[in-house]
Amino acid sequence: MCDTMVVVEPTRVLFAKNSDRDPNEAQLLEWHPARSYPASATVRCTWIEIPQAPETHAVLLSRPFWMWGAEMGANEYGVVIGNEAVFTDQPYAETGLTGMDLLRLALERAASAAEAVAVITNLLAQHGQGGGCGYEDRAFTYHNSYLIADPHEAFVLETAGELWDSERVSAGARSISNGLTISGFADRHSDFLKTRVSECRARQPLTQERASRAAGPGDLMAILRDHGDGIEPVYSVLNGAMGAPCMHGGGLATGSQTTASWVAELSPGSARHWVTATAAPCTSLFKPVRVDEPLDLGPDPAGIFDSRTLWWRHERLHRHAVRHPAGLYPLFAVERDEVERQWLADPPHPKEAFDEGDRLLNKWSGSVVRHTPDTRPWYVRRYWRIRDEQAGLVSSRSGVV
Q1: CATH number of the domain that 159 lies in?
Q2: Is residue 231 assigned to a domain?
Q3: Cβ–Cβ under 8 Å, residues 109 and 56
Q4: Per-residue pLDDT for 401 more than 70?
Q5: Global confidence as pTM
Q6: Is the pLDDT at 397 greater than 50, yes or no?
Q7: Is 63 within the bounds of a domain?
Q8: Which is nearest to 240 in space by CA: 5, 20, 11, 14?
Q9: Mean pLDDT for the chain?
Q10: Active centre residues (catalytic)
Q11: Looking at the predicted structure, is the pLDDT value of residue 399 above 60?
Q12: Contacts for 218 with CB less than 8 Å, ≥ 6 apart
């Protein structure tokens, strides 16, 4: 489950997305340069192989570690895309291009938001969408919607199987979540029950209203950290804390966790990107990155705890802090917000930012990682105990390592 929003202004476009997936489904940043290919070249996507384009653009992706495609990303032309799982009345294909594959292919092949819409819809007609999209449950699948932006405009693109509709956003705010929203198309093709369980009907109006008041990237970061009412996530026994943009797993029936976040400010001739490269934006620091400047962030994370990786090092902070947010978030949130304010005003070099982020992560973890009461409901504690064990993140005596 995810939330994506844009704000189109006369001289710039703002973009933000939370990627919500399974809690141990680590997500990585990945840079790819522009490349040329011979006419016979193919590209192996998550489940199928398709003809490669003669040329691909330079891209920066935020990608679940086991997929070829990406949840969100940007290219050298200032195109950014975020996708959402949506549930429709159309059949779900056993194989095809995943929504994440379509997102990456569009970034690699399109030089504007309008071109990206054309790339996705043409690929949808040629190859269809389908195949497993879940980490814990590989049979879990869905259809997709997208918010696609460049420095001038944005588009909502919604699909139902091979059907689709689009809406241009030329001014103001627009947000999408895990349900179809385009008038007519949504009425014809929404799956009522699954759409309701996804809680998108609560989150999308919230992000729409708050994005309409956003004055800059910092406001979008705050929206991505929103838990609804107050500092504490609000949990449901059915689906955990899926009712707010900053999502936390914990339901008995289903649950998603925000596993990566992205904010962009796009202007003609300039694009600024800010990423967490870690889960839970409420415990994360947004850091500047550039499409044309790869960083060495160490080994890629996978589904098991690995202290060599940024994503999993941050999980020690996240999974301790979320046990008692009211008591533990104040130990780092004030300093984090001040660092972000300074960086938004005067962005450091990305490497310097990530190095400083690592230093702060170690400092904050030292303050937060301690024995504290777990104030969450019993079913949330049970949910996370299982995921911590699966990730190798527990010891027999002290819980999360």
Answers
A1: 3.60.60.10
A2: yes
A3: yes
A4: no
A5: 0.95
A6: no
A7: yes
A8: 20
A9: 95
A10: 2
A11: no
A12: 340, 341, 344
- pLDDT at position 254 over 80: no
In whole angstroms, what is the distance from residue 347 CA to residue 272 CA?
9
- Please check whether residue 247 is in contact with residue 1, taking contact to mean a CB–CB distance below 8 angstroms: yes
Q: Is 371 exposed, middle or buried (0-12, 13-18, 19+ CB in 10 A)?
A: exposed
Host H or E run for residue 15: strand 13-21
**Residues 262, 82: contact at Cβ < 8 Å?**
yes
Question: Please, are residues 181 and 156 in contact by the beta-carbon 8 Å criterion?
Answer: yes
Higher pLDDT, 395 or 335: 335
Tokens at 134, concatenated: 């879940």
Number of domains in the chain: 1
Intra-chain end-to-end CA distance of the chain, in Å: 28
399 sits in which H/E element: strand 399-400
Q: Which residues constitute the domain of residue 132?
A: 3-294
| Size (the chain), residues | 401
Average pLDDT in the 118-143 region? 95
- Between 36 and 191, the higher pLDDT residue: 36
Is 29 a domain residue? yes
* Residue 336 is assigned to a structural domain of this protein: no
